[in-house]
Amino acid sequence: MNYDSSIKMMGISQTFGDKTVLKNIDLTLGKGEIFGLLGPSGAGKTTLIKILTGQLVQTGGSAEVLGTDTRKLTSSIYTKMGMVLDNTGLYERLSCRDNLALFAQIYRLPKGKIREILKDVGLLEAEKRPVNKLSKGMRQRIVMARALMHDPEILFLDEPGSALDPSTVNEIHALIRREQEKGATVFLTTHNMEEAAKLCDHVALLHEGKIVEYGNPEEICRKYNHQNRIRILLKNGREVTLQNESDAADKIREFFASEQVESIHSTEPNLETVFLELTGRRFE
Ligand SMILES: Nc1ncnc2c1ncn2[C@@H]1O[C@H](COP(=O)(O)OP(=O)(O)OP(=O)(O)O)[C@@H](O)[C@H]1O
């Protein structure tokens, strides 16, 4: 099938009773990009993932995944999708290896693929351990292994780094980037702005069911850099803030010449402050 975008949403809306959770969402994901849907708790992120993965039929608009309407996803499309959602669906008393073996059968993968993916996610040594004896970080890695083992074209990740320690988060990010290098498109949700800024090619900020900003994280931050200032920390502990204009360079040169500079920072906002500016709400 020919399609020019991996995921396309056209006026997606969702209501539950009299509550409108998503309002007219238009978004397009190009092939091979990492996209992050950002919003505070209850913003509607999981609802959108459910619609895109065919688990929920929207009340308005339409969406396509790999050129197919999400209301008509077939098993051949599902085999091109990998998902890490809240309900992990792991068999708690089965070992890591046996959990993956079940999925390898469904996807008709060669046996060697199980050891290969266990190695990739750093769980080869724990292959015989039952899932209910895994740490939280190991659990997330086995869930990732299951989602990645059939080399999906599209990966849906609902809060992939949530409640994990920083080193596990870094490992999960490395796995996500590796999938991108292999050509996969990644749709992830997060309420962690730092995670999104590090990982994503594009993000959309979701507030009360609407996209309030969309773009590359760095470009968004630059766009909201109204103050355009430079903050200089001096070795004596003093802090100097300069307007980022031509005469700032002379001042900075002077500070350097007299070896006073400890560090220099831009005062560019981060995604969190942009969201606050747009919505008057903090992320929590
Ligand atoms: N099946 C449902 N019936 C009624 N309301 C629902 C249903 N599913 C979700 N909601 C409501 O829709 C809103 C958005 O929920 P959703 O789970 O999509 O948010 P979220 O952004 O993923 O939040 P979190 O980060 O906490 O998971 C919430 O107010 C939730 O209570």
UniProtKB/TrEMBL annotation:
GO MF entry, a single one: ATP binding
ABC transporter domain segment(s): 7-233
InterPro entries in alphabetical order: AAA+_ATPase (IPR003593), ABC_transporter-like_ATP-bd (IPR003439), ABC_transporter-like_CS (IPR017871), ABC_transporter_ATP-binding (IPR050763), P-loop_NTPase (IPR027417)
Keyword entries, A-Z: ATP-binding, Nucleotide-binding, Transport
Organism domain of life: Bacteria
Keyword Ligase: no
Pfam annotation, one family: ABC_tran
Protein name, UniProt field: ABC transporter ATP-binding protein
